[in-house]
Please model this.
Amino acid sequence: MGKFTAFLKKKNVVISGKRYGIDALSAMAQGLFCSLLIGTIIKTLGQQLAIPFLVDVGQYAFEMSGPAMAVAIGLALQAEGMVLFSLAAVGWAANAEGGAGGPLAVLIIAILAAECGKLVSKETKVDILVTPAVTILVGVSLAKLIAPFIGSAASAFGQLIMMATDLQPFWMGILVSVLVGIALTLPISSAAICAALSLTGLAGGAAVAGCCAQMVGFAVMSFRENRWGGLISQGIGTSMLQMGNIVKNPRIWIAPTLASAITGPLATCVFDFRMNGAAVSSGMGTCGFVGQIGVYTGWLSDIEAGVKASITAMDWTAMLLICFILPAVLSTVFCLIERKLGWIKEGDLKL
Model:
């Protein structure tokens, strides 16, 4: 047993929740962003401006989401070149076989294939043949065997959440908004979770609301400490920057979380705020305004499908209120109350 443990250490195979549940998941979200998400944005821009070249560029990027996710995961697992490059084929197969739940299939299968590839890497004199062969054979075989089941399970769970949100928009609006918002601030990827579950529709709108509440909330309530740099880095960057301060004083998390508990049900019950773009956008909030772009592309898709007549003034009002105005106002008010109570002191939100 000791020899096997030493061998795993030598091959840099670290079996841990952090490496697989945080590092790999976060990397997968980056792969999604650099393929499916940016591809959707470029394609939509090309369609709106009637530029076929941009439509083609966006489509090519969109279709590379599987390989991009797998390679990103391999990079997070510190896979060497031969393994890393081989993961492109694994990602393509897992995403294709996984269907709507493809991202979750890619996450699981790319991790297994990468670790198997690392185990055999540089162990033979014909490494150039053995390493890619093992990585691809393991990955593609798993894709054929289990990806459809993983994809179906993830898709079914996502559908369950979306169905429950449609049936119980108030309580599910709170639940989805708060949980996805918390996931966004934690060192895990809310975007990858939403993508893996194919979370769109009314539940997607609640997820966007929760993420915006965290990002805009922390950006505004910490303005006195961090000024404009903090406003931008948290407001259109990530609220994860506050994680160190949350560990020191968890009470600073109360204000934006309460804000998300209010904006979530407002999104679902009052504004019928839906995110029908790429599912990964549901977990992005105001990061690069990707959440808002996702909502907008969803509007366009709905119009094209004939389920929506046009983009109305109420649609824009809902987006402004749910994504920007209410998170800023509510978080500021709750933060001021906490400061009055002495729960938040000067410097607690300093980056």
Notes: DSSP finds 15 helices and no strands in the chain. The mean pLDDT is 91. The chain has two domains: 10-148, 168-341.
